[in-house]
Design a protein that fits this description.
This protein is an alpha+beta fold and about 170 residues long. The protein has a single domain, classed as GAF domain (Beta-Lactamase, 2-Layer Sandwich), CATH 3.30.450.40. It contains 6 helices and 6 strands; from the N terminus they run H-H-E-E-H-E-H-E-H-E-E-H. Strands 3-2-1-6-5-4 form a 6-stranded antiparallel beta sheet. Strand 5 and strand 6 form a beta hairpin. The longest helix has 24 residues. InterPro entries: GAF (IPR003018), GAF-like_dom_sf (IPR029016). This is GAF domain-containing protein.
Length: about 170
């Protein structure tokens, strides 16, 4: 078994138990994504679930008309969000075209992603499910207070996700 938390069986089981790939998750998370994008004045906000081989979009704002809005995911190799699964910390890329890891990423090269800021979604059981993130098409510096806002909104998203377990919507 790999030491990389992204592949931890217990984390993947938590995602399955929370039924985060269900279509009913998106509507309950859309307003969090919208509020986040609006507050940070960025076009896109995602609530992602990082699986072992793919990123799944569980909630979003700003994807209308984009291929990601239709596919609801992409290969994990392209994922900025996977970094937070491994580190359990915020991950910020202010100039994606200059970033050593992401400058050749198809999301940067083909789709024009220029900045990213994301924070981990940590369940009450301590597993990183994915991220709450924002994406922009222009380079941008993120302030400490903006990253703190992302953390606050991520906690709200996790609370909503876990309410489903409490209400019995998931087993």
């Amino acid at each position: 078994m790999s030491a990389d938390p992204q592949y931890a069986l217990e984390r993947l089981q938590e995602i399955a138990e929370l039924d985060l790939l269900s279509a009913d998750v998106d509507p309950m998370l859309q307003d969090i994504a919208r509020q986040t994008a609006t507050h940070l004045s960025l076009p896109v906000s995602l609530i992602s679930v990082v699986l072992d081989d793919a990123l799944h979009v569980a909630g979003s704002h700003g994807l209308d008309g984009l291929w990601l809005g239709e596919t609801r995911g992409h290969p994990v190799e392209w994922s900025f969000c996977a970094t937070s699964v491994r580190t359990r910390e915020a991950y910020v890329v202010e100039r994606a075209t200059e970033d050593a890891y992401h400058r050749t990423n198809p999301l940067v090269v083909q789709d024009g992603v220029r900045c990213y800021a994301g924070v981990p979604l940590i369940s009450s059981r301590g597993f990183v499910l994915g991220n709450l993130c924002v994406v922009g098409l222009e380079e941008r510096t993120f302030t400490v207070s903006e990253v703190a806002f992302l953390h606050d909104m991520a906690k709200t998203a996790v609370a909503r996700i876990e309410e489903r377990r409490t209400r019995g919507a998931v087993t």
